[in-house]
Amino acid sequence: MVARVLIVDDSSFFRRRVNEILESDARIEVVGMAKNGLEAVEQAEKLKPDVITMDIEMPVMDGITAVRKIMQKSPIPILMFSSLTTDGAKATLDALDAGAVDFLPKKFDDISNDREEAKRLLCARVRLIAARGLGITPVATTVVKQKSSVPASQPRKKNHQLVAIGTSTGGPVALQEVLTKLPKNFPVPIILVQHMPASFTPSFAQRLDGLCQIDVREAVDGDVLKPGLALLAPGGKQMEIVKSGRDFSVKISEPLLGQNYKPSVDVAFDSVARFYPGTALGIVLTGMGADGREGAKKMKQGGSELWSQDEASCVVFGMPAALEEAGLSDYVLPLSTIGETLTRCV
């Protein structure tokens, strides 16, 4: 399959640069370019590309408005290019709410310090989004698959003492879908690990806190775990659970050399396995790669339960697939049921 792409940006230099990178991959074809949101809406309907790359700040019509109109008229997967600023974070989250499926930093140096690696990652993200399309069907009646020889069934109520959720691509929308279903008196603490730049996590936590009945905030070193509180790992850092007196709290630290994900689901899950053996619930949502699999293995070895999001409702079926393929998922659930199931089972 060749991914057909429409590039949208008001900078002719940036359009040419993205075009050169994408056209260097034989599996990608740039079918058009637009310099503002209005042209993007018109060309999206005319060219029907597989993927659109979209800037946010543009004349005539901004990227967020263009995303809304495209998703209303002729829905197409949209990858946003964002500046890593507080304003850029808020605008990008607005674009995801409007229907965009993912985002990347506009400065390629922020994707990777290695220019060639940054180019490869951009092409890989475009191909993956094109292949996935918008075939996301989070339907509540989807059958829940239990990863054993036992017939499929719903998760049962257990004495979970902590919920740990890890996610990446598609995660901002998925986390919002799950957490807004939880009641204010949710009985256990929650930790959240979302692959996201450091400038994005404060805005994302604030947004979730405004939408949810539970409290959500970006974690700071020493925050104590409390029922009804979800702590979001800060971007660019690692978050682990530690024991502090009679309480459990989070430790926020700089990533170690060689840790690719910052924050890392594996790092967080590994600490959950140490301090909550057999009493935690780990959930892996949509995301590229396999972060979370190794930490989940340790949780599983300690007797904790693991859920993963089903393929049909994932933006990218990477991280949940890694759990399923390793035989770690106790239950595979559609996104639309996870929040309600949490409320019932925890």
How does this structure look, described?
It is a single chain. The chain is an alpha/beta fold and 346 residues long. It has helices at residues 12-23, 37-47, 63-73, 86-98, 108-111, 115-132, 171-179, 201-211, 265-275, 293-301, 319-325, 335-345; strands at residues 3-8, 28-34, 51-54, 78-82, 102-105, 145-146, 162-167, 190-194, 215-218, 229-232, 238-244, 247-253, 280-284, 305-309, 331-333. It has two domains: 3-132, Response regulator (Rossmann fold), CATH 3.40.50.2300; 145-345, 3-Layer(aba) Sandwich (Rossmann fold). The strands form three sheets. An eight-stranded mixed beta sheet has the order 6-15-14-13-7-8-10-9, with helices on both faces. Strands 2-1-3-4-5 form a five-stranded parallel beta sheet, with helices on both faces. The protein has a two-stranded antiparallel sheet with strand order 11-12. The protein is elongated.
Helix coverage percent: 25-40%
Task: Report the CATH architecture of the largest domain.
Answer: 3-Layer(aba) Sandwich
Count the DSSP helices: 12
Low-confidence stretches: 136-152
> What's the CATH first level of the largest domain?
Alpha Beta
Biggest sheet strand order reads 6-15-14-13-7-8-10-9
Structure, briefly:
The chain is built from 12 helices and 15 strands. It has 346 residues and is of the alpha/beta class.
